[in-house]
Fold this sequence. Notes:
The complex is a heterodimer. By secondary structure, chain A is of the alpha+beta class.
Amino acid sequence: xxxxxxxxxxxxxxxxxxxxxxxxxxxxxxxxxxxxxxxxxxxxxxxxxxxxxxxxxxxxxxxxxxxxxxxxxxxxxxxxxxxxxxxxxxxxxxxxxxxxxxxxxxxxxxxxxxxxxxxxx
Amino acid sequence: xxxxxxxxxxxxxxxxxxxxxxxxxxxxxxxxxxxxxxxxxxxxxxxxxxxxxxxxxxxxxxxxxxxxxxxxxxxxxxxxxxxxxxxxxxxxxxxxxxxxxxxxxxxxxxxxxxxxxxxxxxxxxxxxxxxxxxxxxxxxxxxxxxxxxxxxxxxxxxxxxxxxxxxxxxxxxxxxxxxxxxxxxxxxxxxxxxxxxxxxxxxxxxxxxxxxxxxxxxxxxxxxxxxxxxxxxxxxxxxxxxxxxxxxxxxxxxxxxxxxxxxxxxxxxxxxxxxxxxxxxxxxxxxxxxxxxxxxxxxxxxxxxxxxxxxxxxxxxxxxxxxxxxxxxxxxxxxxxxxxxxxxxxxxxxxxxxxxxxxxxxxxxxxxxxxxxxxxxxxxxxxxxxxxxxxxxxxxxxxxxxxxxxxxxxxxxxxxxxxxxxxxxxxxxxxxxxxxxxxxxxxxxxxxxxxxxxxxxxxxxxxxxxxxxxxxxxxxxxxxxxxxxxxxxxxxxxxxxxxxxxxxxxxxxxxxxxxxxxxxxxxxxxxxxxxxxxxxxxxxxxxxxxxxxxxxxxxxxxxxxxxxxxxxxxxxxxxxxxxxxxxxxxxxxxxxxxxxxxxxxxxxxxxxxxxxxxxxxxxxxxxxxxxxxxxxxxxxxxxxxxxxxxxxxxxxxxxxxxxxxxxxx
Lengths: 121, 665
Ligand SMILES: Nc1nc2c(ncn2[C@@H]2O[C@H](COP(=O)(O)OP(=O)(O)O)[C@@H](O)[C@H]2O)c(=O)[nH]1
Ligand SMILES: [Mg+2]
């Protein structure tokens, strides 16, 4: 698997979103220096924002573990190795983590880096 | 195991007074909604005290029970996910857990969520205190197609592990025996599953500590390594060199980690937890999706979530609190009980007092008994009680987190997030209480914003009840009143979010499953809130009555009213409304009730009624709320909000009057 896409988003907005994701990932990778856990150089990063309801994936890491968002995610048990399933994205995210459901906003979702190649429902 | 030396205990809550009475102390620990309180009531029975933890609005419950003839004091903690707190509840819980003199900890977890819960167990194992793991809600495992092996888990962790069903009491006896056994043996568990490099760093740090602490130095070292600020302050105070040696050791240990040791440790604990959970929890059957689970999902979506939300609010606020509480109950209590029996009786009783000014203190127009007590018991109590009942049902059913996630986006526009629905909704019961609860919001900016909105745009239940009663026959006026308040809420919130410096926190919370509320829980929660209300707010109301009486006797009231007359004149209102506004400051409900009188006597036309209702609602908070603002947010902010509210309320009233009369209503 070359690019770590979770699945083609199909329909309309998918293409645009992929481009936007690509730009965002490029900028982030440049600013954080050497890539860590789960992303090879030149590979677009996958975050929770790339998933749709029903998708499952494994968490690779948190973008900024020391930020308030990172600390909140850690306290809710969203940490590397944990598998997550998206229940809904709007108006807030609901994610299943090990038999429990947690809700959070886009700012937190953007901070969850995923292991590429997760499965659709 | 007790620490070798115990410095003077200054723990809050009950403490033993003599060696004979010395009771064991047990703390229930665990995430929110795992059944700690349910278990607590099983363990303790009658002697229960609920108190707010000092300088927080977080409730802590203490109780006494018996284990094998031994008196045991149990504390129910508010809930925490890890020992690195991120919220006020977590900070309080952690302090209770770390308190000296706790003889055993009981970690309560939901059986289905062991993988999520074990990381905290691992943290608790480092505290050097006897620990028991209670696996609650094992009754739900079958439905989820899960099978759990407690014995295997006990073996892996080296802990007492007891499966229980707190609601039915199943397994609780076994748990009591395990607690007893753990206290008697006095053996703290052996910490588990640390990476060698972290273990080495902790050991090195431990060697650099020499002060006296209430918990093992190993635990202190582990907290330090996780970057915990409270522990750092503790070390600086306890070490003879001000903690220099320890902090130097800490720097060396923490060097070279990009993510911070707190994160690294958390990741590690989760890895261990997942591996253990994988061995002891097995999916053996099919997972059956309950109706409640489907319903829970639906309620979190805009459709049908938002329409349902509106129906819930309408049924709860308008029908139950408004019609039943403020209508039927108030009518009965006030008309039949007070005006019919109590007041005539009191007036007869005080007729013997020859001095009218003194008699007036008790039974006159502003009498402490005829007005103060009547309002407190016949008007406020039923309204506030029905509201608290409604709120407790929402809380116990698990609906509030869904409400929070539905409004998150809207609340972000006004500088808050979904978490703020709790103080805001509570404001409809009592703005004073809500102003206090706003303390649980994460940033100062959010606390100030919520305080402003509560002061301005959220009518409390006493006010709401009376205003709904006045405007209920007038759909247009009622609609306009709601529209002005909602507009103010959004507008002032949006402007405030732009001008106030600082950042707002992001939204995150765990969603508990929807459950049918349990009557005992609901009654307990309602009673706790009412108790607080009666103790904290009613005395202030009584004080306000005395001040009004003094104002009347000295003539000061008349002079202030003279100052207000031109102002109400500018709003196109008759002179009598001046006293309504003045009363409104002393007590929101007095003001509203005064308005009620004016409407009954026909002194106000439709426009006048609407203008005064709007102005009165926006107008300054009552004395109790003002004092709470002062106490919680400081004098500057309280004074600022006060000045702004007065100006804004009269400004809006003025414009509203001109507009409505201008278009010829
Ligand atoms: N099915 C089931 N529900 C339980 C059990 N114990 C508690 N509950 C429910 O779980 C919810 C949360 O309980 P509570 O004691 O308030 O949790 P706390 O937040 O940890 O104090 C309540 O609705 C309880 O009725 C149990 O053993 N089985
Ligand atoms: Mg509780």
